[in-house]
Amino acid sequence: MKRIGVYWFTHDLRVNDNQLLHKAAQELDELICLYCVAKITPFLQRFSQRHKLGSARQQFINQAVHDLLQSLRRYDQTLLVMDRDPVTVLRYLIEHHQVTHLYCDQFSGYDEQQVCKQITREFPTLVLSQLANNTLFEQGQLPFSVTELPNTFTQFRKLVETLPIVLPCSRPSFLPPPVNVQLPSVHLPLVAPEQTLYPGGEAAGIVHCQHYFATTSASHYKETRNALDDELASTKFSPWLALGCVSPKTIVAMLRHYEAQQGQNESTYWIVFELLWREYFYWYARKYQSALFQFAGIHHKRPLTSFYASRFLQWVKGHTPYPIVNACMNQLNETGYMSNRGRQLVASCLIHELGLDWRYGAAYFETQLLDYDVASNWGNWQYLAGVGADPRGSRQFNLDKQTELYDPERRFIKRWHGEDNVTDIYDVDMADWPILPKDK
């Protein structure tokens, strides 16, 4: 009997350092490579107030999928790109093409986990192979079970930072031949890479990492990482990490090579430190699953917030009373990028100054960010809202002080027009009744 498998690509859009693709190559006679176009779920539509992904994020995804298709063609393979939900597509392939094996990431995302559970329920003889394809450590390396994940990042870091990080594996030497699937593959529209801030795909991701480590920026990373808008102040690895175009192990391997030539210091360590944060949120999402999206978070502690539609719209459009927040949101809406410092400031503003449910901010970020990662995004929003992994509770930033610290000459604010649409938030009450100006 032929062993026919489906590799369901999601956030592992690469052929290098892909152990799961190696496994499929060794075990199968024929292979179907599948990608399902991301959809706006009813939950995401409700909280983001958006019907589609932002143009910058969608373009980055399209480029990454196209790059994967080009890589697979070098193996005489192809990529089936489907604009249908994964359950429907996988069910069809299993029923009509005698699929015996399914290969996919060990997801941090709850929705993808539910797809695997439903498919294996419907097809109990299907062989499901999953690996954590975008982590520094395999589950067996961890000195604790997923359910016993430490409650704070610091506890986690102390337990794992001395663990060995396995070197990335090479690309497969071959792939099994494709199956002739009679389904119309979607053509994703593209624009020229030079017209985008960061071009998507494995090839572009590797070039970006090589360019970064060809400079001495890594030796100064800790001092510059909080800059709001500077090409080499932060690593900018996250967009390609989020889609799995580049693996974290590959970045660590490049960093070790850099350190061998330029030397280690606190800044080069801090790059690994940031990757460990990403790692923590991956296992955090695996542990808490659907609680990642719950208003009361993992501690069942409901914040004292509400929802003012006009305030949320002001925040989205960059029309708040806070120029630094407006500038950050304008940058996000135009480019799909926002610095880590900027994300903390706009999140603090939404939660504290505007008094809004943190999930609206997290969902809007999901639709816009080039580097959207379910675990890091929702985990960080929970952290800042005081319903997640931060033992100190909700964090509020003084926006005036932060402006003086990180944009004292207001260059960032001017570049991104943060002062163009400064608007008072007190125009309606929580029932959307107009509030008259104080001078009337």
From TrEMBL:
Classification via SUPFAM superfamilies: Cryptochrome/photolyase FAD-binding domain (SSF48173), Cryptochrome/photolyase, N-terminal domain (SSF52425)
CC cofactor note: Binds 1 FAD per subunit. Binds 1 5,10-methenyltetrahydrofolate (MTHF) per subunit.
Record bears the keyword Protein biosynthesis: no
Pfam families: DNA_photolyase, FAD_binding_7
Domain of life: Bacteria
InterPro entries per the UniProt record, alphabetical: Cry_DASH, Crypto/Photolyase_FAD-like_sf, Crypto/Photolyase_N_sf, Cryptochr/Photolyase_FAD-bd, Cryptochrome/DNA_photolyase_1, DNA_photolyase_N, Rossmann-like_a/b/a_fold
Keywords, in A-Z order: Chromophore, FAD, Flavoprotein
The keyword Flavoprotein is assigned to this record: yes
Entry-linked NCBIfam families: crypto_DASH (TIGR02765)
Function recorded in the entry: May have a photoreceptor function.
Protein name as annotated: Cryptochrome DASH
